[in-house]
Give the backbone structure.
Amino acid sequence: MEPKSPDAVTAPMSAGDTSKIYVVWVGEPTQSSMAEGPDVAVLADGLFLVRTDQTQSQLYHAVKRRLAPKRLLVARADGHPKFKGMEAGALKWLRAGG
């Protein structure tokens, strides 16, 4: 497996990896900065689901370095979160990842 860039928000998934789902909230609207790549789903302005094999701390620090937000929350979801009224495609993205 290739080493992870410290500034990568998500790392590429490879066969055999056990990915985790995180809820990421950035206090400032920042969809264009955060929502890059297939492992990020936009739920609402500043609210994202991220699928990655990174630890919570690794993801937190990657987002913090990349976006430098004033407010940030990164929380691991235990299973698939339940939600309603979020951006189109978010539930499809979640189901497609297993």
In short: Confidence is low (pLDDT under 50) at residues 1-8, 10-15. Residues 55 and 97 are 18 Å apart (CA to CA).
